[in-house]
Every structure is written in C-alpha cells, then in structure tokens.
Design a protein that fits this description.
By secondary structure, the protein is of the alpha/beta class. The chain is built from 8 helices and 15 strands. Helix 1 links the parallel strand 3 and strand 4. Residues 11-191 form the Metallo-beta-lactamase domain.
Length: 251
C-alpha cells in the first residue's frame, strides 16, 4: 500500500491511496490541473485512477471533481453529500449505501473501501478505511467535531492513519474570528482539536510502526509544532516513542 498526500489544509484536501494494483483518490479539493500535476509527480497517471471517494461536499474537498468527467472516473459519495455536488456526469455517480444502519463495503477488485459516519456541518459526511487483499489498511478522517466508538472500530488495525488535527482550543478562543465561527469550530460538528486527535491515536496505535499523518491543520488556530507535541506526548504516556514504535508526519 502507498499513500500520497496531494494536498491538506483549510483550503485544499486530496489524498491518493494505491493498493491492490489500483489507485483511488479520497477527496478532490484541488483544482483539476493541480491534481493531474501532483499525481504525475508521485508516479500515478490521472487516467489510471479507479475511483474518487468524497468525504463531504465542502469546496475544499470537491473543487477538482471535473477530473472525474475528463477521465471517466466513478465518484462515490453518500446520498446526503450528493445534494451538494454538481457537475459530475450522471453515469459516473455512485452512492455509498447503508444497510441496517451501517455503510456497506465497496469493492474495487482487490481494494475494499469501508465508509463510516463522521460528524461535521455537512449533509452526510463520512471517513473511509481502505484495505487490500494482503491486509494492509489505511484510514482517512478529515473533518469531524467528535469521535465515537464506531469510528474507532473502523479505524482499528490501520497501518496508515490520516487524521485531522485542526486546532488548539485556546488559540481558537484568542483568535479574531466571530464568536459564531469559534463556536462552530469547537462544536461536535466542527473540527478535531489536537487533544481529541491524540485521544483517538492512543486507542489506535499499537507500536507496529504505524504511519500517522496529521492533516487539515488550521493556519490561524494551530501550529505544526503544537500538533506534533500533543500527539507525541499522548503516545509517550502509553509507552510509544516516535521513530521507534510509530512514524509521525505533520502535513
């Protein structure tokens, strides 16, 4: 399995995951031409993308979806999120469906994709766990204001963990944004704080050399050093050291 983060932050989000001989995109929040360029830079031909999976329909996650029409790439999103997506050819639209309250696994011939519920101010946001036939697993959680046991269950066993560490609550309180925006960021349908992300990672990391990527950092309410320090400290509390038991990168 190979993971390439093409863009991450408050303005652009796009990840390429290659597994089972196929490459897929999680979100396409970068201009189409930039996605093409960045794919080629990491050795992936844009016309070889097997599918695009959308977490939610905010612009920083769907801006580059015209790529799908250009290369006839199927696009998967929940029924709710399709309400916020336009411009994708009808024959390329795919719906992540639920059965008995849980999302069904999506199989792409050697790649198994598991959508799971997240919590953000969108119609029906999800995260994704991706697994290949060899048992390698990757999970992607971009925007969510809280975590649940169901999310942990879907993320467990991942060799690659891509998760947002959006903000430090004290910096949010001190910033110049309107109180309504601050309340949204800190709410259960906003974004994960560094500490919330650290709590999730304490549940997930087993010291097997997992690769953690902290994504979607706020440029105003966080710093890479603060996010990194919070996670390293939390994992040290349970006996794991960066570089020895796991690898950490702040994107």
């Amino acid at each position: 399995m190979k993971v390439d983060i093409l863009a991450s932050g408050s303005a652009e989000n796009c990840v390429a995951v290659t597994a089972g001989g196929k490459s897929i995109l999680i979100d396409a929040g970068v201009a189409k031409t930039k996605i093409e360029k960045r794919l080629l830079e990491v050795g992936i031909r844009p016309d070889h993308i097997a599918a695009i999976f959308i977490t939610h329909a905010h612009n920083d996650h769907i801006r580059g979806l015209p790529l799908a029409n250009k290369f006839s790439i199927p696009v998967w999103a929940t029924e709710g999120e399709w309400k916020g997506i336009s411009g994708v050819d009808e024959d390329l639209r795919r719906v992540a469906e639920t059965r008995w309250g849980k999302y069904e696994m999506i199989e792409l011939g050697g790649v198994h994709v598991y959508p799971f519920q997240t919590y953000h101010d969108a119609y029906e946001p999800v995260g994704y766990a991706i697994e290949d036939d060899e048992g390698d697993r990757c999970c992607v959680v971009f925007d969510t204001g809280k975590w649940t046991e169901e999310m942990i269950e879907n993320m467990e066993g991942s060799h690659y963990v891509l998760i947002e560490a959006n903000h430090d609550p004290d910096l949010v309180e001190m910033c110049n944004r309107p109180d309504s925006i601050k309340a949204r960021i800190l709410s259960d349908i906003g974004h994960l704080s560094n500490q919330q992300t650290a709590e999730i990672l304490q549940r997930l990391i087993c010291g097997r050399g997992e690769r953690i990527y902290l994504t979607h950092l706020s440029g105003e309410n966080n710093t890479p050093q603060l996010a990194e320090m919070t996670v390293i400290s939390a994992l040290r509390q349970i006996g794991y050291e960066a570089g020895k038991h796991y690898h950490l990168e702040v994107v």
